[in-house]
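Exercise: predict the structure of this protein bound to coenzyme A.
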Amino acid sequence: MRILMLAHAFNSLAQRLHVELRADGHELSVEFDIHDDVTCEAAQLFHPDVVLAPFLKRAIPRPVWERHRCFIVHPGPPGDRGPSALDWAILRAVPVWGITVIQAVAELDAGPVWASASFEMRAARKSSLYRHEVTEGAVTAVRAALARVASGLGPLFEPAGGSATWQPAMTQAQRAIDWRHDDMATVLRKIRSADGHPGLEDVLDHRRFRLFDAHAEPARSGRPGDLIARRHDSVCRATPDGAVWIGQLQPADGPPSFKRPAALALGAVAQTLPRDPGWGDGGRQPAGGDIRYVERAAVGYLHFDFYNGALGEQQCERLRSAFVQARRQQTRVIVLMGGTDFWCNGMHLHCIEAADSPADASWANINQIDDLAREILLTDTHLTIAALGGNAAAGGVFLALAADRVLARSSVVLNPHYRNMGNLYGSEYWTYLLPRRVGAERARELMESRLPLGAERARSFGLIDDHAGPDDAGFLEMVRREAEALAVEDVFESALQHKRACRADDERKRALADYRDQELAQMHLNFYGFDPSYHIARHRFVHRTPHAWTPLHLARHRSA
Ligand code: COA
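Solution:
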């Protein structure tokens, strides 16, 4: 089928559907929702069999839904309507939720239902539920809806109609925290219902912020509402029955802003808080810390769950020291597990944007990531595995390739390219790591196509070694099996010898330092040169500036 994807942005759900539907043999083109006339023009140019709207903030224009079958992916069960579907589900702690494919009609979310899927709710932030359960359900439901179209069937049912099921957009007042009375679980639920957008508005140190990235801390206490501790860039705030860590804040006073690590946003007051060290800087492993290390059967599993997969200078340094600490243990294999939602998305663009000199901050950040990549790449005492349970993009993908084996959850979406960020050249030794896995021609094609890749396609040409899942159990079992197989003494010794020989051979052909110097010379131009494209792209990305046009690599109907 010819499917025109209409979206506010090419977000994770749109990318996943793009990957899956292309793999199913459909012909896809994408148009961003910029203006009704542009949408109508896109439909005229592409002649779609179906218009698919996985992520829209406005209604589809009437001429489009009158002429074409338009499917809206709604993150709620059949009958649910409104723009804050998941927010309400989290706040009300419903045990089971759903996704529905609805045909667009004049009234929002009120059209015929073509397919649906359901899932058990998990105690997690909204964006995490969206990236996992909602996305998985959407893939199933969209496939079911398209199958009905292909077999000439109609919708499953027409909804009863009426306004009873309409849930309005949730206001800040409806989820405001009462710090004197709300317990830890309530505070977490409220913050999670608004994370990653719009964030829960609150007052800290007499200033208004939006709060994100909350974790329970049952082992601490203080006067409810007080800030009582700091760990790295997170701050801890007391509740009547414990406390919560808050990792990210977005200033809500003054001009439109963006989120950043909490201590950075708070400034001086964060400096006065008692510090709690985490693992990777000599401290104990705290509950809910972003770096965790677990050992089993000669394998060390290093988890690093950084908010939005962003690897800033501070995270790089901590992760590098945690990796070095892991390498000192009596193990044979180290598995780099990444985080639940993302494995890694490269440089921390929000911290860079917030810095006095974004050019200097970019330079420092990329050098830190390169140091980390080098540390992994030159490890000759252990075998390493990158286990991608969450998505990865740009430098994050190439950092994973520094490991000896790369495994992924079947549902991950990879973006192994940098150019979407203002033609950034990229580093992380990608000029060495990518061609060595996929060959020079494929490396060039991946970098230039700028399209997301699914796990199966990535495996088909060797970008990754294997994948399993999409469920947690299947993915983790594959990782454990592979890691423990590599840790068997004979296998380990011969694989390690082979690794050392290959590295020595590669080094003779061209020194690793030379790859880095050449990449960084290009990055220096991106950061300090005459062309400001990277700085403009980063600014627009961080401020979530709406798109003004659809890039031609996505809008196939415009380049034909
Ligand atoms: N640094 C800081 N924040 C990042 C980030 C990065 N490298 N990559 C993603 N994020 C943030 C986004 O700003 C967004 O923030 P929000 O919580 O305020 O919404 C959030 O992560 C999710 O990103 P979004 O683009 O909405 O999610 P997605 O799942 O739809 O898309 C990516 C994921 C990775 C494809 C996209 O975010 C991206 O292109 N990131 C930039 C990658 C990059 O160029 N890195 C720098 C070069 S190494």
